[in-house]
């Protein structure tokens, strides 16, 4: 078979292998995959059901997304960023947030360009950088005060980059960038001419009273930022597969073309459900969901007290350092499933030198009641011969 250099360094995501090995055993804690059992907004379910019954949205057009959803996204972004995005020129609807990443990379980079990402980072971001023909430049995360923190010295050392591809809170670490971090990002973008590609999928899922800072509100970033959003995480609407891209109008012309030729159009039925969630006056349950995820996160941290687990500042997952336990991440993942009945993904494909030492624990689909024996499961995994 003919070789393809584009795939030379692309690694499998890993979570699907763990999920298959876990099977359907109800005793297994499902902490390998970013699903959730917290219900989506009822208004979104109702709107989608009505659309299916009436046929509304059963069309290829408009290729860039239904006006009602683009306007809803513009309203959402106005609240978050303080900016007035033109729904027709500056917003395009995509088939999920992750599928938005490749069109943005194709519009902002050339083959061989550097794209800076944190280590660890979401494999879906990292491997798309490689597939686009760009090259990842890793910015290591360090543990400081019990939380992951961005290494700003490493950021200051970036000399060439076409883009910085960042998420906050981020998968899989739960790192949250503060105002000083974003100011350092702005300085790097100005110095290198880079765009900021900002994955905002979990922006409001923040714990412990940490401030939620949108980078567009930081001096120097608004005009350089391309925002990728979705309804999957904050609104618990994973199966709808609806996302969006917003950015400078001139650049969005290229991005729209890449989106259209990649997927043509996102599901019209699902778009109507997404619009209902974004415009729900009650907030679509985001605050209540965040409180529930925090309860689960805190239970995980309490259960694993004394083990090398790092608190998340937000999001749906946290990381355990397998190397600090004398194991590789695949070894710890295997032992957790075999002896502890915990499905957890090794971070082999999720970074450079830091991520591969870790295993991810996702708590978004396991209620507190099922997490209360997590320590016993870990002990079984770590002590069995």
TrEMBL record:
Aminotransferase class I/classII large domain mapped to chain residues: 38-363
Pfam families linked? Aminotran_1_2
Keyword terms of this UniProt record:
Aminotransferase, Pyridoxal phosphate, Transferase
**The protein's required cofactors:** pyridoxal 5'-phosphate
Q: Which PANTHER family match?
A: ASPARTATE AMINOTRANSFERASE
Protein family: Belongs to the class-I pyridoxal-phosphate-dependent aminotransferase family.
Q: What is this protein called?
A: Aminotransferase class I/classII large domain-containing protein
């Amino acid at each position: 078979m003919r070789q393809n250099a584009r795939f030379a360094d692309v690694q499998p995501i890993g979570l699907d292998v763990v999920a298959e090995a876990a099977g359907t055993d109800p005793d297994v804690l499902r902490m390998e995959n970013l699903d959730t059992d917290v219900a989506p907004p009822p208004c979104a379910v109702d709107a989608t059901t009505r659309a299916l019954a009436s046929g509304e949205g059963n069309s290829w057009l408009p290729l860039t997304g239904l006006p009602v959803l683009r306007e809803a996204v513009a309203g959402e972004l106005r609240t978050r960023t303080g900016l007035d995005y033109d729904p027709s020129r500056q917003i395009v609807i995509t088939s999920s947030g992750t599928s938005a990443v490749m069109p943005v990379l194709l519009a902002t980079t050339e083959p061989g360009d550097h794209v800076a990402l944190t280590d660890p980072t979401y494999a879906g971001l990292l491997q798309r950088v490689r597939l686009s023909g760009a090259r990842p430049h890793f910015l290591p995360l360090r543990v400081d005060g019990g939380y992951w923190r961005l290494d700003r010295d490493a950021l200051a050392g970036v000399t060439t980059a076409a883009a910085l591809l960042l998420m906050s809170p981020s998968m899989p670490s739960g790192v949250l960038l503060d105002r000083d971090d974003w100011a350092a990002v702005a300085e790097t973008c100005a110095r290198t001419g880079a765009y900021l590609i900002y994955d905002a999928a979990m922006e409001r899922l923040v714990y412990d009273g940490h401030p939620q800072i949108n980078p567009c509100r930081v001096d120097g970033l608004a005009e350089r930022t391309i925002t990728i959003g979705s309804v999957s995480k904050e609104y618990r609407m994973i199966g709808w597969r609806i996302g969006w891209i917003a950015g400078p109008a001139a650049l969005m012309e290229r991005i729209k073309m890449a989106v259209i030729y990649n997927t043509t159009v996102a599901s019209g039925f699902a778009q109507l459900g997404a619009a209902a969630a974004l415009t729900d006056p009650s907030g679509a349950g985001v605050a209540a969901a965040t409180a529930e995820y925090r309860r689960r996160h805190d239970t995980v941290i309490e259960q694993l007290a004394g083990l090398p687990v790092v608190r998340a500042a937000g999001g749906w997952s946290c990381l355990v350092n397998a190397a600090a336990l004398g194991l590789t991440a695949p070894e710890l993942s295997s032992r957790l499933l075999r002896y502890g009945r915990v499905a957890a993904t090794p971070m082999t494909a999720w970074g450079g030198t830091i991520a591969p030492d870790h295993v991810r624990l996702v708590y978004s689909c396991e209620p507190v009641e099922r997490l209360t024996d997590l320590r016993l499961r870990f002990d079984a995994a770590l002590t069995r011969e």
